[in-house]
User: Which sequence fits this backbone?
């Protein structure tokens, strides 16, 4: 049995060397989640944030998604992503969510494109430190047009 719960600063004690974990947990505590096994051990997590660039519609970004190898293909990543996306839309009225994925990561591409219904928005050349390109992917959360804030029922929030 897997339990999905909101992440806390303490969820990331295994990797305090990476300050972004702490920054995300403190800045957007409602967007990141962990999956625990029946003994309370973390077997997966999603680390997410809101992009806060002036002049842009509110949108979320998945910084990191990971599931331990022996817990993969059980729907854990999908549950983590769905919970985070729901929180983005409800708490911040995020119009869409974005992420980057290595062009060579076929398993992740299948998850994002086929299961979670993300689409490739762009290719970012040499995105990763080793020079590999990334697919910049997006999924619409609220409304149809990302140029104006709208709710799923079509109501324009910019008025």
Assistant:
């Amino acid at each position: 049995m897997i339990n999905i719960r909101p992440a806390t600063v303490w969820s990331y004690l295994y990797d305090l060397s990476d300050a972004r974990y702490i920054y995300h947990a403190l800045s957007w505590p409602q967007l990141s989640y962990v999956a625990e096994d029946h003994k309370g051990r973390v077997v997966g997590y999603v680390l997410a944030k809101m992009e806060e660039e002036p002049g842009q519609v509110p949108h979320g970004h998945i910084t990191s998604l990971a599931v331990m190898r022996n817990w993969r293909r059980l729907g854990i990543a999908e549950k983590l992503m769905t919970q985070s996306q729901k929180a983005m839309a409800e708490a911040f009225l995020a119009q869409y969510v974005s992420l980057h994925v290595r062009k060579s990561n076929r398993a992740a591409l299948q998850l994002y494109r086929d299961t979670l219904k993300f689409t490739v928005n762009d290719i970012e050349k040499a995105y990763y430190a080793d020079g590999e390109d990334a697919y910049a992917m997006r999924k619409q959360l609220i409304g149809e047009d990302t140029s104006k804030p709208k709710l799923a029922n079509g109501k324009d929030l910019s008025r």
In short: The first strand starts at residue 3 and ends at 6. The CA atoms of residues 23 and 158 lie 30 Å apart.
